[in-house]
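Reopening: structure tokens for the PRP complex, inputs below.
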Amino acid sequence: MEQAKIAASADAGRVLITSEQIQRRVGEMAAQIAADYLDGPLYLISILKGSFVFLADLSRALKRPSVRIEFMAISSYGNEKTSSGQVKVTRDLDVNIEGKDVLIVEDIIDSGVTLTYLTRLLEQRHPKSLAIATLLDKPERRIRPVEVKYVGFTIPDEFVVGYGLDFAEDYRNLSDIRVLGGQ
Ligand code: PRP
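Re-run output (same inputs, fresh job):
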């Protein structure tokens, strides 16, 4: 992976990954995905809210005949996601994914609790295939192993915002990824 350029910011901290780096990497991921899924519709399932920006760019970069866009929302019981995996679906799919190629689109994988829950849930619906594409991966934080097919950037254990990722619902609109409070 290429080295992220460091830049100063008055607002949300130093840039970890520039928008140019993101766009280049998203293009590479889209090319790989298009090469891996040659036939039939590909269902991209965006997990709200954080993945909406990545989904928008990835889907537009995907050069293949049929790309379907679907959304799900997940929340944890209480305020914390815990190792007990106590998460629940607050918005489910509108479509039947049985026999379909399904790609879960995430902005970040941290503990792995959300994706562990989600993949188990979706597997029960018997898709033809089920895989995960995440822009960011923080493997140091993992408490549940998750098999991820496409990773944009592996990052250290720092609190990042921008490009869909928030802190208290702010900063999702930034076009680059920044370390909150970073110098
Ligand atoms: C983030 C991210 C994943 C989840 C990953 O969502 O979009 O869904 O956390 O964390 P995990 O690997 O520890 O389970 P978040 O809860 O921040 O909600 P948001 O996407 O609405 O910001």
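The chain has a mean pLDDT of 90. The longest strand covers residues 67-76. Marking as resolved unless the reporter disagrees.
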